[in-house]
Amino acid sequence: MPQTAVRRIVILTGAGVSKESGLDTFRDPDGIWSRVRLEDVATPAAFERDPARVHAFYNARRRALLCGDIAPNPAHAALARLEAEWPGEVLLVTQNIDDLHERAGSRNLLHMHGEILKARCQGCREVTPWAADMDGDTLCPACGRAGTLRVDVVWFGEMPFEMDRIFSALEACDLFVSIGTSGSVYPAAGFVQEVRMAGQAHTVELNLEPSEGHSRFAARHYGPAGRIVPEFVERVLEDGW
Ligand code: BJW
Predict the structure, then answer these.
(1) pTM above 0.90?
(2) Strand-by-strand arrangement of the 127-129 sheet
(3) Which one of 36, 152, 185, 207 would you pick to mutate in the ligand 1 pocket, going by the greatest count of ligand atoms within 8 A of its CB?
(4) Cβ-based burial of 206 (10 A; exposed 0-12, middle 13-18, buried ≥19)
């Protein structure tokens, strides 16, 4: 057992961790924002202006996630293994709206940008598991109203979920690892700075290439997540950091 046994780990993941599972990132040359403008699909104003377009965007991504071809990759599996085998706490904070961390076995997990497999009623506020398409006529299963459902994700200008728990964990952690995120969307992009200001935690970036904030990390490893995350987890479980 490593000497660092009781230490607390916070992991932040982004779209890069799901890329090798077959889900697109946002800002890579072949990413989602190369095909659709975020202003048209990922803001509250876009949903007010053209709800059919926003529903269609998320319906297509939900169908792709559930089509049967998408599965967790070795990076997801390694993070679930870390949670299962690390003697201290491992909190996984994901910006991803897919369910691949859950499918791999992660349990101590916060979806700060929401989940595509949930619907939220803008009338009664109820959040419901949701695997089907949604449109302007869909009835809220809780209050029965039509036209009030939206996908339970966080758009630009909205407050990400669970921020109090996340900031408390960042302040108290001993190791912070950022995986597969470009570091261009706040508040997630600022987490490494929060950790550094809070104290002595070690900070590590694992990504395909240096992110916007790469110089803020004490250690950096670059390559596909499916290779470098299992290698990193193996090292942490063997030797700590
Ligand atoms: C691989 C790989 C492989 C590829 N292996 N790696 C001016 C300054 C500062 C902030 C703002 C500002 N103006 C506005 C803001 C705030 C705004 C913001 O940050 N805007 C920026 C554009 C500047 N943020 C917000 O509005 C957020 N809310 C907010 O700030 O509330 C106020 C607040 C204040 C204080 C505290 C707390 C809150 C909300 C942001 C919501 C983001 N929503 C989206 C859509 C969600 C639903 C959906 O999926 O459709 O979230 S946008 C999109 O970006 C999605 C992602 O979660 C998010 C981050 O993207 P991610 O994951 O980093 O993906 P990419 O594509 O950018 O990067 C992938 C990386 O993987 C790359 O580096 C690749 O190299 C790498 N990679 N293959 C390993 N195989």
Answers:
(1) yes
(2) 127-129, 114-121, 149-153
(3) 185
(4) buried
Cα 164 off chain centre by: 17
What phi and psi values does residue 231 have, to the nearest 5 degrees? -65, -45
Residue with the smallest CA separation from ligand 1 atom 21 is 185
Confirm whether 113 is a catalytic residue.
Answer: yes
Q: Could you read off the pLDDT of 47-101 as tens digits, one per residue?
A: 999 999 999 999 999 999 999 999 999 999 999 999 999 999 999 999 999 999 9
Nearest Cα residue to 161 out of 118, 200, 198:
118
CA of 27 to the centre of ligand 1 (A): 9
pLDDT at position 4, please?
A: 47
Which amino acid residue places its CA nearest to atom 45 of ligand 1?
155
